[in-house]
Structures are given as structure tokens and as C-alpha cells.
């Protein structure tokens, strides 16, 4: 508990708000993403909060930031599956949801994300089986009427089902590739920006070092010139005193 408290104290207020809202969205999705219409609005708000967090000077590490983005993308994909009308489409879409969330550095995120994925996948599979069972019953009635076309109809349904699954998988793979590319470009832009700031800091340090050396040389030259000046003044003073003493001695002898 102490380590968690220390970690929370090191976070910015914006990051704490993101973690709390993200955890709430995950619990809402685990319950049932169809029930609460506010889930999609919360996810859109998380998108804006993540963009704002990336612009702050006190932002988390790149791994932590990518973890937040992946969890939000998972919730986006989950919400998008609820908008599909066909059970076949929903099963294909939920199978393509990112499953790499188990690597996130969060005590709640990995477990609840896995639970959401398993629960949603099981639900859509049940719906698909129910529809296929209902379709099979209708096929049985039609089979009694047209027994000669039964084999062709079943084969066509299987081929159509497999074709739909393959098309949805291909579409989701293209979508995931595009999303990964966007995240890579965003990370690349952040890295380039940080490198630019480091280069500016190095140049400023070099300029300050050069100025410091120049001022040190000037100070050293001035110190040496002052020392020479005082040395000549002391020599002149000694000579004046010496000549005055000689004159005083001569005058004193004459008076005696």
C-alpha cells in the first residue's frame, strides 16, 4: 500500500484522473457495454485527456503512456463490436481485439481486461450458436419440403459463414495496422521533440562554457596587470625613501 501511495504521489493530477476514469470504464464494460450509454462518451473524454497529458512537462514514461493508449483502444474496439448487428460480425470483431493488455503496468488493468475479453467473447459465441441453432431448425423444416437441396444449402451457409469471418478478420487486421502506425508516428514525434530539446540544452551549455572561459581569461589578465602596477609603485616608493635618506644624511653632516 505504501508503494502504491508513493507512486500516486509522483503522478500528476491529470494522470490520476485518467487512471480513475479508465478503471471506471473498464468496470462498466465488464458489467455490460450495452447497458450504459455513457461509456462511449467517457472513452471519447479519455482520448482528449491522453492528448492533453502528452503535452504536459510532467508526463509519464513512454511505456506507461502506450499502456494507457492500448487500454483505451481495447475499450473503443469493444464499443464498436456492440454496434454490429450480425452475430458473425461480432464474433469476428471481438476475436480481433488486442490481447496484449496483460503487459500493462497496472494492478487492475490486466486482470479486468482479460475478464472483459473472455466474457464478451463467450456472450457473442452464445448468440452465434443460438442463431445457428435457430437457422438449423428452419433448415430442418425446409429440408422436409426440399430434401434434394439440403446439402447444397448447408454447404453454401458454411462457405458464406467462413467467407464473412475471413473478410472481417482482414478488415480488423487493416484497422489494427493503421492504429499501430498512428501510435508509432505519435511516439516518433515525441522522441524527436525530446531529442530537439536535448540538443538545444547542449548548445546552450557549450555557449555558457565558452563565455565563462572568456570571462575567466579577462579576469586573470586584469589581476596580473594590477599586480604589476602595484609592484612598480612600491619600487618607486622605496627609491624615493632611499634618496631622501641620503640627502638627509648629507645635510646632517654639513650642519655638524
UniProtKB/TrEMBL annotation:
Its main location: endoplasmic reticulum. GO terms for biological process: protein transport; retrograde vesicle-mediated transport, Golgi to endoplasmic reticulum. Keywords: Endoplasmic reticulum, ER-Golgi transport, Membrane, Protein transport, Transmembrane, Transmembrane helix, Transport. One of its GO terms (molecular function) is SNAP receptor activity. It is found in: Endoplasmic reticulum membrane. The chain crosses the membrane at residues 230-249. InterPro entries: Vesicle_transport_protein_Use1. It holds the Pfam family Use1. It is a single-pass type IV membrane protein. GO terms for cellular component: endoplasmic reticulum membrane; SNARE complex. Signal peptide: none annotated. Belongs to the USE1 family. This is Vesicle transport protein USE1. It comes from Bombus vosnesenskii. The gene is LOC117239120.
